[in-house]
Amino acid sequence: MSHQLESESPSSQQIIRDSIQTKIAKGKELKELGNAAYKAAAADKTALTTALRKYHEAVNYFSGLDNAQFNSMVPGKSDTAALSEAEKADIDVNLIACYNNMAACLVKLERWDRVVANTNQVLKKFPENTKALFRRGQAYLNLNDLAKAEADLTKANALAPNDSGIKTELAKLKKRNSEYEKKQKKEWAGLFDRMAASHE
After folding, report:
1. Model's pTM, two decimal places?
2. Same domain, yes or no: 102 and 133
3. Which helix (H) or strand (E) holds 76?
4. CA gap 138, 126 in Å, rounded
5. Quick one: what percent of the chain has pLDDT higher than 70?
6. What angle do CA 112, 114, 118 make, to 5 degrees?
7. Are the C-beta atoms of 134 and 118 separated by less than 8 Å?
8. Chosen domain end from 109, 127, 153
9. Domain range holding 129?
10. Spans of the TPR repeats (predicted)?
């Protein structure tokens, strides 16, 4: 009798596998809701906060799908319900999209420090992600960190040389660098004039 009950009830591994699939599906659903809210933000800026919230919720679903979490649910079975390579790739693609999309929302909201934080998440895994490099370069430019802005925008331009958005930001950077150099020259000239006057 007990054999029959065991064979009819799902195994721990199957429960975990179902949970993984459910979380991936829920994360994708939330990402799509974020995408819809982002598209609506063209007409309604408050939709940006809705999009951000949905992307953040999706990230929470995807981020919780590491092997250690599920392996710890089944005592003595360290390799139980490991994520397949296809699942890992699917999760990575969706996480990267969510972080990049959050960064896009934050650019529109001019929350530059948070743009940097979200693009860093992308660039940790994919250091040549053009969108993340572009948005982080844009953020650094607005935070007046011109050296970091130049590094990111130059790398993004090398990866996507025909991207007009990157070219626009590089032009802004060039102008900002030129203004900074003029200001520095003027400040140094004033300092030298004051020093010469004090020696007379």
Report:
1. 0.77
2. no
3. none
4. 18
5. 76
6. 120
7. no
8. 109
9. 116-200
10. 130-163
